[in-house]
Predict the structure.
Amino acid sequence: MPVPAVELEVGNRTVRVTSPDKIYFPDVGLTKLDIVSYVIAVGDGIFAALKDRPVTMERWPGGYRPDVKLSTRSDSHGEAFYQKRAPSKGMPDWVETVTITFPSGRTADEVCATELATIAWMANLGTLRYHPWPVTKSNTEKVDQLRIDLDPQPGTDFADAVPIQPTYGFIEARHAVIALGRELSRRMPDHVTVSWWKEERGARIFVDFNQMARDRTIASAYSIRPTPTALVSAPLTWDELSDVAPQDFTVSSMPARFADVGDAWRPFYELEPRSIDAALEMYARDERDLGTGKYGGAEMPYPPDYPKMPGEPSRVQPSRMTNETREKEGLA
């Protein structure tokens, strides 16, 4: 007989885990209860990554299987899906929410991770990856983490975040990442690029500046990846990078590592926030040198679902650009 539910004490809350024996990762025999228990085992680490932040839930309510598809903006028919709005039913009264604003100007109340029990509750909903915004509930318009996503082309790896003073908004934070990425590409032109179009990147690492745009998030530390062996996002020290591989860190192995070494990113959360003024000065220099509002200017294309942004160049990839577009963009 299937077990209908179990109750776990998380802090001073009781979290109900429904269908605890439901298989979530068949290749390694992990159940739904195993997934919730994992979140609790690495609680200090995952809570530090999500604390007081609006969180988009990546839900796999039936667990992971190779044939399960994740819904996207272009195809919403997957069994797994991203949930931005807090559930309208069945949410405990102690789960907090915060209002966030999308690029369209619409708003939504999103789950806010104010305690570990909230994260365990999200795990019970089938959440594997947690996507926190780079803002906190105290001010959802001021960015406090400068997230630099290193997007590997065939051949590379890894991502990091920088705590910053919550002084600037999403546009300025994105400009700071563009400027930093462009400077890296100047210094290491054979290894780094900020070219938005894949056809221009080659084998270079792409600094994905649009992951710093509003409503763009990166899976948090300790999130579970939908893979056969239940890989997890593992915080590492710089010294570890050359000696490890993603396959080393799973739902089964991470709790032992966490019990042994704790949260490798704890020192990061204790850092004093920095200013991004120097990066914004670099962006201002690029505006003077490269101009704005044309392909190849200082500004870069936004994601396709965004409204047209001020100073943004054409979103037409170079190989498809017509003479008419070139004239409009001042390239003819």
Observations:
- The first strand starts at residue 5 and ends at 10.
- The longest helix spans residues 170-187.
- Helices lie at 32-41, 43-50, 116-124, 170-187, 254-261, 266-269, 277-290, 323-328.
